[in-house]
Write a structure and sequence with these properties.
103 residues; mainly alpha; 5 helices; globular; DUF2316; DUF2316 domain-containing protein
Length: 103
């Protein structure tokens, strides 16, 4: 599945806003998800090769936004049940295991 320009911009903004609402630092996210800051930036810009990585980050951020007592910003493109998207590996998302490397 590919996103059009409007969906890409919206998703980047939704990720950024939820990251802000989570109250976490970039380093905290990287440490908890066991990723580099380069990979974090690539995911935030939707430049990551593995399609599951943005979903993992989305779920992670939403959980932390709620824990922080805030209301998550809804996602427009990364929405619905990821199990229903044939192109995603739902087990990878459930395990929250990011792809290897920075790409």
């Amino acid at each position: 599945m590919s996103l059009n320009a409007e969906q890409l911009l919206a998703t980047k903004n939704e990720l950024a806003r939820n990251f802000e609402l989570s109250g976490l630092t970039k380093q905290q996210v990287c440490n908890e998800l066991n990723i580099s800051s380069i990979k974090f930036d690539r995911i935030m810009q939707l430049e990551q090769t593995a399609l599951e990585d943005p979903w993992i980050l989305k779920n992670f951020l939403v959980a932390h936004v709620i824990t922080a007592g805030n209301q998550p910003v809804p996602f427009t493109a990364l929405s619905g049940d990821y199990h229903r998207h044939w192109f995603l590996n739902s087990q990878t998302i459930e395990k929250a295991v990011m792809s290897l490397g920075d790409h």
